[in-house]
Design a protein that fits this description.
Blueprint: E1 2-4, H1 10-18, H2 25-40, E2 48-54, E3 57-66, E4 73-81, H3 90-104, E5 109-115, H4 121-129, E6 133-143, E7 146-154
Parallel strand pairs: 4-5
Antiparallel strand pairs: 1-2, 2-3, 3-4, 5-7, 6-7
């Protein structure tokens, strides 16, 4: 089941994020900043977080929001699945849900940023398998030899005359 974030979700999300080998402590802290903003400030409109829950346990989530100064571009800030959940397809379900959220909010683009480091190859392959394309790359962005790769998916929207 995929549902909206609840105030009790931050702790299980932190525990899940800490089990993901790719995420550094700093990355977990940044993810938690957005989770806390969404969980404890219900009036904010920047971050929309949805939880994948299985047998009453948090096993994945995503965070999406409209990119500032755009009319229809959304950032997929985070998407993660519990490596110990033992369930296949969590990421794909979450990604499809995020795409539907963007479409329901009249989105035209969804963008996801990731690293070029070798330990992010599964992440890059995940986006490619789900019909995302590389729309930009900035060399040496995070550090020397660690490029920013931006994946995007465009949703054709009929223009009104």
């Amino acid at each position: 089941m995929i549902r909206k974030l609840k105030p009790g979700d931050p702790e299980p999300l932190r525990n899940m994020l800490e089990r993901i080998p790719n995420f550094s402590d700093k990355e977990v802290d940044i993810a938690m900043e957005l989770i806390d903003i969404a969980a404890f400030n219900p009036d904010q409109k920047d971050y929309h977080i949805y939880i994948y829950e299985y047998e009453s346990k948090v096993v994945g989530y995503y965070c999406v929001g409209r990119r500032p100064l755009t009319d229809a571009t959304f950032d997929l800030y985070w998407i993660a699945a519990d490596p110990e959940a033992g369930i296949k397809g969590i990421g794909k379900c979450l990604l499809e849900h995020a795409e539907n959220f963007v479409l329901q909010n009249n989105g035209r683009w969804i963008l996801a940023e990731t690293s070029s480091k070798e330990n992010y190859s599964n992440t890059r392959n995940f986006y490619l398998k789900n019909n995302y394309s590389i729309v930009a790359q900035i060399n040496d962005f995070y550090s020397l030899d660690d490029n920013l790769i931006i994946f995007g998916k465009y949703f054709a929207i009929k223009k009104q005359n």
